[in-house]
Design brief:
Largest sheet: 7 strands, mixed
Shape: globular
Structural class: alpha/beta
Number of strands: 27
Mean pLDDT: 87
Strand content: 15-25%
């Protein structure tokens, strides 16, 4: 048996998608997973006889061989059909338009695309396969698209949806029917609820974003709660609205958003609800409405970050001209700066503005030498840089001006035009151009390589992006030429062709869909196919599949690492920032992309701490809470000791890891690594002393030490020997690493005791310290307060350990010594003499032997 179903609370997009997908699976049965929405129920009362919905018993589930899901990928939203997920005998096909999520059901087949409505995806398949549809089906499909895209007005609407609507109109879709159904009148109870919404709506300013919150109680449940909310939105036109409705022992929260950076799905997921970026809902039981409202406001404050303001899009630097300047001069400035308008300053103040159009008119019809004094407009509107785009747009319309001048107090900052605001209203939160920054920071030969890669991508029909740490460091101003390219297409195919064009060496890893192009001795490009990952269980290595760029970025650890730069010629240097990473960089904030991030990969906890302390950022409140929740779930038990060891090693190898270790202690991470680890006040102080001790060792020896091993020895100090053994076993330490740990922990105090002796010859210092690993010596220098002990260890590292004999066994033979075990004893005595300054040259070494040994023969 084949089954088609969708999420509980089936809406029109879900219903339309069920009917559409049956065109592709004609043998499949249509089944609701639960009660549909009020609007769909009303529709089915009238037209249900045209849609063959069937009821399936639990017994029939055993017969299902194929489950086709539409408009959802979540197991907990498909009712009893969730029991079929994971069964080997059941193939799962999914068609969905929602963003990918780590908890998504794994599909054997299907199409998931980031478009306005799921039914748009299915219409495309129906069109390609030339499957006929009736006028009724075309109208139902159109109803699904119009509902989920706000009649094609939501920012999630794509050209894909518009093409689907055009096709449906050709097939007889009736727009008037769609409009009437979506805008049907309210029942008496719904009308009363709408009035309640209008009376009780409160506008909150959350980090600069206006959010409407409605809290109300009703005696009797009102079906179709979303319809009064939609009517409220039509009346008040809010960007973001949350309605909390209490009925009996149940509380319903409905949420709608028109802003790309306010994801109501993420917000209501904190209550166990869901939906998509623009619309979500949840039903709660046995709780108080006041507590729900308080929790919602708290979640909003954590999740909603400052929106784009005109400061982000205004033209810089703040150029201006003077009234006495000639039109030709002004035109040159406009051309050079690429400006459409420029302010005019007189006697130190901005007094007006002149446009390119006006300047070109003066040049063409008067003279290029004409002063602009009589031509510029004295009318302009001054605004503050913190003004939101929406308010800026409203001012431009109300004041009937095509541009705004931005001032901070008396200081002129820049210009914003109506077209700048138009361009900023984009589904991608930030799409700044970083082309000039790339040209400034990246060496010319690497820029040429990136430009060539972009041109090749165009020829091959691929989109290629720079991703990851390079983008982050470019924005931070840090040097980083470790460049990773993500290809929307076939990464390995692209890499082969690029390597051939560059005449460069190529290394391919087919299993992972990656390749490395060795462009020169000091520069390589890592190329990978755009992909998403899912985890079979917490802590497991991810399973990888091809996906769009947005999904590829969504799988990454933090927003600051989830940005990309396009290198295709048409938009070379454009920053794609779907998740607010640039804003988080500006606010010095470490933030995960989704609530399950640390469950999927617990090692991200270490990386969050590392990023926070390395860049002097702050882990945001929600992310910190998620870390603590993950630790309470004992997530590290699911991760191999080797992976945890690698993360610990990276932290302990940092130049100054003290703050990272303190942060690990504060968050409870140290305790979960091993409950016996204690960062006491004295250890804390020694940890800071180790910075200088390590630096001094590396300068004197001319080699890098194993910093992590020294610091770990300090952390494990005073732990019982058996517990240290268990620790080493849990985290896959080598035999040599274990020995160094034990010797360093115990030997440090032994060294201090012995080196405190009042009289000690250099040779005694040498033979004492020679038997200890470098890690023990570094730890001792940091730990001891004795200047004498420090001086003796420094003496060993700077000179004693470098003492070498110039004579050898061959020289002893020339002195008529026959090879024997005595050779070693003689050479050792000479070395002691050299360490103690008794001999210095080869001649003195030979003379020492003659006097001490030959005289006895």
């Amino acid at each position: 048996m084949q089954l088609i179903t969708t999420h509980t609370g089936c809406d029109f997009d879900a219903l339309a998608s069920m009917v559409a997908v049956k065109k592709l699976y004609p043998e499949a049965k249509l089944c609701f997973s639960g009660s549909p929405s009020r609007e769909v129920r009303d529709f089915m009362h009238v037209y249900g006889w045209l849609i063959p919905i069937e009821k399936i018993s639990e017994k029939d589930l055993k017969k299902v061989k194929k489950l086709i899901l539409v408009d959802t990928r979540w197991k907990d939203r498909i009712g009893m059909f969730g029991r079929l997920v994971g069964k080997k005998q059941v193939k799962i096909h999914i068609y969905d338009h929602h963003p990918s999520h780590p908890e998504d059901i794994k599909a054997d087949r299907g199409v998931c695309k980031d478009v306005g409505a799921t039914v748009s995806i299915l219409i495309d398949l129906i069109k390609k396969r030339k499957i006929p549809i009736s006028s009724f089906e075309a109208t139902l499909f159109g109803l699904g698209i119009y509902e989920d895209t706000g009649s094609l007005s939501f920012f999630s609407t794509t050209s894909f949806d518009l093409r689907a609507v055009a096709y449906l109109l050709d097939k007889g879709a009736k727009l008037e029917f769609i409009s009437n159904f979506l805008n049907s009148g309210l029942t008496e109870k719904q009308d009363a609820l709408l009035r309640d919404f209008l009376n009780k709506a409160r506008v909150l300013s959350i980090n600069g974003v206006e959010v409407v919150v409605i809290t109300t109680q009703i005696e009797e449940f009102v079906g179709g709660l979303s319809l009064p909310l939609h009517k409220f939105i039509d009346f008040k036109n809010p960007d973001v609205v949350f309605a909390i409705v209490c009925s009996g022992d149940k509380i319903f929260i409905l949420a709608r958003s028109r802003l790309p950076f306010v994801n109501v799905d993420d917000i209501l997921s904190e209550f166990g609800g869901g939906g998509h970026n623009l619309a979500a809902s949840v039903r709660l039981k046995d709780t108080q409405i006041k507590k729900v409202e308080e929790k919602l406001v708290h979640i909003l404050q954590e999740n909603i970050h400052s929106p784009l303001t005109i400061e982000n899009i205004m033209h810089l630097p703040a150029r201006f001209v003077f009234p006495e300047m000639q039109a030709g001069e002004v035109k040159e400035i406009l051309d050079k700066e690429g400006l459409e308008v420029i302010p005019v300053q007189e006697q130190g103040k901005i007094t007006g503005i002149i446009s390119r159009q006006k300047v070109e008119h003066i040049v063409s019809y008067n003279s290029a030498s004409s002063p602009i004094k009589s031509y510029y407009s004295r009318k302009f509107v001054a605004v503050h840089p913190s003004l939101s785009l929406k308010k800026a747009q409203r001012i431009i319309i109300e004041e009937e001006v095509p541009w705004l001048l931005v001032f901070q107090g008396e200081s002129f900052l820049g210009v914003v035009t109506s077209f700048d605001i138009f361009k900023a209203f984009d589904g991608n939160f930030s799409q700044d151009s970083l082309k000039s920054l790339l040209e400034k920071k990246v060496p010319p030969y690497i820029m040429r390589t990136l430009i060539e890669a972009g041109k090749l991508a165009n020829r091959m029909g691929f989109s290629v992006f720079i991703v990851g740490g390079f983008v982050r460091d470019l924005l931070l101003g840090n040097e980083n030429l470790d460049i990773d390219l993500v290809v929307e297409g076939e990464g390995i195919v692209f890499a082969r062709e690029l390597a051939r064009n560059l005449r460069a060496e190529l290394t391919v890893h087919p299993k992972f869909g990656t390749a490395t192009i060795n462009v020169s001795e000091d520069f390589k490009l890592d190329v990978v196919t755009s992909r998403h990952e899912f985890y079979s269980h917490p802590g497991a290595l991810p399973v990888v599949e091809k996906a769009a760029l947005k999904e590829d970025l969504f799988r990454r650890d933090f927003t600051v690492n989830a940005m990309a730069i396009s290198i295709n010629p048409s938009d070379f240097g454009k920053l794609l920032d779907f998740f607010g990473g640039k804003k988080d960089l500006e606010n010095k904030r470490v933030r995960v992309l989704h609530p399950k991030s640390f469950i999927d990969d617990p090692t991200r906890i270490f990386r969050a701490i590392r990023f926070e302390q390395r860049y002097r950022f702050s882990i945001d409140n929600k992310t910190e809470r998620l870390i603590k929740e993950a630790l309470q779930e004992h997530v590290f038990r699911q991760v191999s000791g080797k992976r945890i060891k690698e993360e610990i090693l990276q932290i302990l190898e940092e130049d100054r890891p003290g703050n990272m270790i303190r942060r690990m202690k504060a968050l409870g991470v140290l305790e979960f690594i091993h409950p016996g680890i204690r960062l006491t006040a004295s250890k804390d102080k020694i940890m800071d002393e180790l910075v200088d001790a390590i630096a001094r060792y590396e300068v004197l020896k001319g080699e890098r030490s194993r910093r992590w091993l020294v610091r770990l020895a300090l952390l494990l100090d005073k732990m019982e020997k058996e517990k240290v053994k268990n620790f080493c076993q849990r985290y896959s330490f080598t035999r040599e690493e274990k020995e160094v740990l034990f010797v360093s922990i115990a030997g440090s105090r032994q060294i201090i005791t012995k080196l405190k002796a009042v009289r000690m010859r250099p040779s005694s210092i040498y033979y004492l310290l020679e038997s200890y690993p470098p890690e023990a010596l570094i730890l001792t220098v940091a730990r001891t307060k004795s200047k004498l002990v420090k001086r003796r260890i420094i003496s060993y590292l700077s000179s004693l350990c470098k003492v070498k004999l110039e004579i050898s066994g061959e020289d002893l033979k020339k002195l008529n010594y026959k090879p024997s075990p005595e050779f070693s004893r003689i050479l050792e005595e000479v070395k002691k003499a050299k360490l103690n300054g008794v001999v210095k040259t080869k001649e003195e070494e030979i003379e020492f032997i003659r006097k001490k040994f030959l005289s006895r023969r």
